[in-house]
Write a structure and sequence with these properties.
ABC transporter ATP-binding protein; Rossmann fold; 13 helices; P-loop_NTPase; binds adenosine-5'-triphosphate; ABC_transporter-like_ATP-bd; alpha/beta; ATP binding
């Protein structure tokens, strides 16, 4: 758990982070969103002491971060930045092995870890380990960047626009991979993003900042249904609100018994995806794929519309 208590950062007497307090539960993903210059990156960089706070306190698992040398702290905290930040003159293998080597892991353990991470990110060891960053696509570089941050098995990962440079398809894949890995390893992730859809897709909680202040820190659903003020409402997208709400839930939550015509929808679709399918196919109900022998179930347009307006 990360406890941020009244943290501020002043430059020339001006607070760019202004008395921010938040408690980030362990094993959750938090996205920090806000307008440009609102202090998101500064807040995040204070957590691993890339920037020293002016006042306030940050504790990680109960320990004040100022009690640990910055370089030691950063070995324990994974950090991913936009454009990956890989060392250009080092191979993929050496990039990923950086922190484990600093931690003096033995050679076999390091190789095992590099193999495991490349496999996790679907990069063939024999083909990729000896390549240099410039011999990779942008998406591959990005995945190696995340792999490197995970190498020392940190229980906290800080990510600053990690997927900003990726095309929409690779980006969606990278987001779902990250979510899977986070669930599997149980780490805590703090992520800065400008992409509101990304924030909603990935996060357990979203922090909204403006002019150095934290306006609201809450679950995505709460931000949509009970925004703290008009700025938050605008930030989470008034026009998109109903669709974002639908994207937070699966169709099983509103499925009902009964038949419907046409192609069956996969049971793991979100309500937003189901709505899109029904509108596109011009039906007012669709069957949901069921295991053999189970009674037929369906999702209807009217249930979806009701769910979109639920507070
Ligand atoms: N070293 C510095 N000296 C003076 N001002 C700084 C310094 N670093 C950042 N700032 C200012 O602090 C404010 C917050 O910057 P920060 O990078 O945290 O914003 P951000 O929310 O991450 O912005 P963006 O979304 O554009 O990346 C900005 O107004 C910036 O100009």
């Amino acid at each position: 758990m990360i406890e941020i208590d009244e943290i501020s950062k002043l430059y020339d007497g001006r607070a760019v982070v202004d008395r921010v307090s938040m408690q980030i539960p362990a094993s959750t993903i938090t996205a920090i969103v806000g307008t440009s210059g609102s202090g998101k990156t500064t807040l995040m960089r204070m957590v691993n002491r890339l920037i020293d706070q002016t006042s306030g306190q940050i504790k990680i698992n109960g320990q004040d971060i100022t009690g640990t040398q910055p370089h030691e702290l950063r070995r324990r905290i994974g950090y991913v930045i936009q454009g990956h930040g890989l060392f250009p003159h080092q191979t993929v293998y050496d990039n990923i092995a950086t922190v484990p080597r600093l931690l003096k892991w033995d050679r076999a353990k390091i190789e095992q870890k590099v193999r495991e991470l490349l496999a996790l990110f679907q990069l063939e060891f024999d083909s990729f380990a000896r390549r240099y960053p410039h011999e990779l696509s942008g998406g591959q570089q990005q995945r190696v960047g995340v792999a490197r941050a995970l190498a020392a098995e940190p229980d906290l990962l800080l990510m600053d626009e990690p997927f900003g440079a990726l095309d929409p398809i690779i980006r969606a894949k990278a987001q779902s991979d990250l979510r899977d890995i986070q669930r599997k390893l149980g780490m805590t992730i703090l992520l800065v993003t400008h992409d509101m859809d990304e924030a909603f897709r990935l996060s357990d909680r979203i922090a909204v900042m403006n002019a150095g202040k934290l306006l609201q820190y809450a679950e995505p659903r709460t931000l949509l249904t009970h925004p703290a003020d008009s700025f938050v409402a605008e930030m989470v997208g008034q026009a998109e609100r109903a669709f974002r709400l639908l994207s937070l839930n699966g169709i099983d939550a509103i499925a009902e018994d009964g038949q419907a015509a046409g192609a069956a929808l996969p049971a793991d679709l979100t309500q937003r995806e189901a709505l899109s399918d029904l509108l596109w196919s011009g039906r007012d109900a669709a069957p949901i794929a069921q295991p053999d022998g189970n009674a037929p179930r369906r999702v209807t347009l009217s249930r979806l519309l009701a769910a979109a307006a639920e507070r």
